[in-house]
Amino acid sequence: MTIALTRYAESDELLTRSLSAAVRQTGVKGEILLVEQRVDAPFDRNLIAKGNIPLRVIADACGSLSAARNIALKEARYDHILYLDADALPQPDWAQKMSNALEQEGVAIVGGRILPGWEHSPPFFTRANVVLDQYSMLDLGQKDGPATKVVGASFGVDRSKVPSHIRFDPELGRREGRLFGGEESAFFAEVRAARLRARYVGTTYVTHLVAHERLRLRWILERMFYAGYGRSSQGGAPAPSQRLNIVDWVVAPIMLPPYVAGWLWSKLSR
Hints:
globular; 9-stranded mixed β-sheet; 7 helices
């Protein structure tokens, strides 16, 4: 299998932690493919210790997360492609269990369990499930089962089963100055529309690190704005990964206005 990730603005320290966990995956063979978007100061592979899986680097200033994921989809040496964020730390058995799920009949896409790794004490509003969604968390329990969505910090596809016209939308995904998201949700929807199966893997997980600056209220409000924009551009109703809890209702007067503003902006700008 290929473990694919990209670095746009993440620090060497953060990327080193993620790659160090990736190269130590057990029970699998393959490669790690880093799409390095910082071509002026590329990652020094000597920063990571030697592991079980070799690292390959493609330097391409493609400018967005969606574009980098499409490059990985094209350039991966193996059909099982496991996407990992550059600030996510997988458990040692993550790649094996995700790849095993893709071996099942008709399964073309899998989503993994994603737990928060707070680098500082999180504020109260992070207890809301809708806020955790904006931090790319997903926790549907510790058992495997059917998937209703995938989240970018931990998901995988079987390229041999996915029709060639299904790719990540370049209009979605994070890029400089805009906290867009939703590219993996749109990809997931297209795969499911092709009548292919999706699985959730809860028996392993990745820890998604949350930097201090993302705990500021201003950051999450901007993220809510672009979440509304992305949902409007894709159509359909908002779909939280988990049932809303009491904190969701407490913070709704703060979180809902920017989301609605983003949704309306998308509608009016078409």
